[in-house]
Amino acid sequence: MEGIGMKCRLLKRQNESSLKVLGIETMDHKWCVILLLCALLHLSTMSQFAELEEYDLKMPGVQTEQEDGYVTFWYPVMSPDRTFYVTDIIPKPNHSTAHHMILMGCTESVRPGPARKRAEHSGACSILYAWAHNAPPLHLPLGVGIAVGPSTAIGSFKLELHYLPKVDYPDYSGLTLRYTVQNQPRVVGVFLMLSNWALIEPGRKNVTVDISCR
């Protein structure tokens, strides 16, 4: 600590000399402490990015029997033994076949292993992310994450993909999750608002649909 203090005082004197050359007098001698705090904050932020890992949720080479087909698979979370925080969801579709896809988080866990066509007990599922053509990836703000794993509401993932044309060759469309084991100060919550009575007439560019909370 003494060495750091001496170095800090030296930097302070050098900074004051530089400012005097420019005709500026320093008013506050606490700048060194502020500089160190900023450096520590920067290192903490960089460590968060450095610890991000990736987890793929992709179709396991599926083919469809007809046009306008829906395919659903269930996936285990990264590990059943610890909690993770998803910070980014990156869509990786085959644009020539995939029309849209929906990622859900389900309450019940799925045994570790490859994706499953059916889940024995998926429990209640809620939408986490939806993609359609030209939709952007989801990048959550720093310090915000989707909590998954033990002691959370998400024990498994469910990915539903809509194929518009018939798929005659193996397709691996899906998503990539970026996550960290570092606890995030804020956890994401999703509110789904929809209307069962919306009517979009052919040729209409704009349609107003009334949706409100009760």
UniProtKB/TrEMBL annotation:
Keywords: Glycoprotein, Monooxygenase, Oxidoreductase, Signal
Pfam families named among the record's database cross-references: Cu2_monooxygen
Span of domain Copper type II ascorbate-dependent monooxygenase N-terminal: 56-163
GO CC field: extracellular region
Top-level division of the source organism's lineage: Eukaryota
Molecular function via GO: copper ion binding; oxidoreductase activity, acting on paired donors, with incorporation or reduction of molecular oxygen, reduced ascorbate as one donor, and incorporation of one atom of oxygen
Annotated protein name in UniProt: Copper type II ascorbate-dependent monooxygenase domain protein
